[in-house]
């Protein structure tokens, strides 16, 4: 008589083996992350400690500053303010300029990328023109925007919009053009209209490239806002860096760099977690 419970026992045993293997891999991944973080913190401590000792005994602190001096400057900024006003005002100014530029430039770039990428005629006509415009250095656009919009917020936002537009346009355009033509032909055979093909076939298949372009654009938005403020701003963290340069204040420049970097890293973590949440919720 054939034992009918044997396949069930084998299936349960196989499931236990798989679960044990997954648990082992998870433990290895946790150990790897902990080890990497420990190595990173150790390297950071060595660099900061070496910098402090070098500033105390070998390097000129006026030119190279020290971690202690930078820390005291940060405390001063967040308690009493900076030479150009409240540090929170500078942070909010830079965040507002980058956020508005990212929103407007991102929407415009994605829509234009979809429109041009989905049409062979538009791609052949506008593609080379937009590529040529993208070659123009950003600093040239900044100076033009200063002439057109003066030194207010508008010129900074326009700079960010221009940078983000090209970044999101090319990410979307490339994603659209890489869609398998066989999928489009099958949709056309089933009677799917042109607009429906774009919304139900092309855009979903290119979504990965579009999301990746948006993530990169968010970083560029922050960089663009700081760059525009440095060249000709009245407020913002970029102006704080320029003030340090004008007064030969290495400590102030380094402190501003830390604030800029901390916000950029925090924003990247938030966007990465948001992207992962969106993928899980789909």
Automatic annotation (TrEMBL):
It is found in: Cell membrane. One of its GO terms (biological process) is transmembrane transport. GO terms for cellular component: plasma membrane. Pfam families: BPD_transp_1. Residues 91-271 form the ABC transmembrane type-1 domain. The chain crosses the membrane at residues 38-59, 98-117, 129-151, 157-177, 189-212, 250-271. Keywords: Cell membrane, Membrane, Transmembrane, Transmembrane helix, Transport. SUPFAM superfamilies: MetI-like (SSF161098). InterPro entries: MetI-like (IPR000515), MetI-like_sf (IPR035906). Its main location: membrane. It is a multi-pass membrane protein. PROSITE patterns: ABC_TM1. Belongs to the binding-protein-dependent transport system permease family. This is ABC transporter permease. It comes from Dactylosporangium sucinum. The gene is ssuC.
């Amino acid at each position: 008589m054939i034992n009918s419970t044997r396949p069930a026992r084998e299936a349960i045993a196989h499931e236990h083996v798989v679960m044990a293997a997954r648990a082992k891999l998870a433990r290895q991944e946790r150990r790897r992350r902990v080890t990497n973080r420990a190595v990173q913190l150790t390297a950071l401590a060595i660099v900061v400690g070496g910098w402090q000792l070098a500033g105390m005994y070998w390097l000129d602190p006026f030119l190279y500053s020290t971690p202690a001096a930078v820390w005291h400057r940060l405390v001063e900024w967040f308690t009493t303010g900076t030479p150009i006003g409240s540090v929170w005002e500078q942070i909010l100014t830079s965040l507002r300029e980058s956020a508005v530029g990212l929103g407007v430039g991102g929407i415009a770039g994605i829509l234009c990328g979809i429109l041009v990428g989905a049409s062979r005629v538009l791609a052949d006509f506008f593609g080379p023109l937009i590529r040529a415009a993208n070659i123009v250095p950003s600093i040239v656009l900044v100076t033009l925007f200063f002439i057109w919009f003066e030194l207010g917020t508008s010129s900074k936002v326009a700079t960010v919009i221009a940078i983000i537009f090209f970044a999101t346009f090319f990410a979307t355009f490339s994603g659209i053009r890489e869609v398998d033509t066989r999928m489009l032909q099958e949709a056309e055979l089933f009677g799917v209209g042109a607009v429906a093909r774009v919304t139900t076939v092309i855009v979903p298949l290119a979504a990965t490239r579009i999301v990746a372009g948006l993530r990169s654009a968010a970083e560029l938005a922050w960089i663009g806002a700081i760059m525009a403020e440095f060249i000709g701003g009245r407020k913002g963290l970029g102006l704080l860096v320029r003030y340090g340069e004008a007064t030969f204040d290495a400590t102030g420049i380094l402190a501003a760099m830390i604030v800029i970097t901390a916000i950029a890293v925090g924003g990247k973590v938030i966007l990465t977690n948001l992207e992962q949440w969106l993928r899980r919720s789909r």
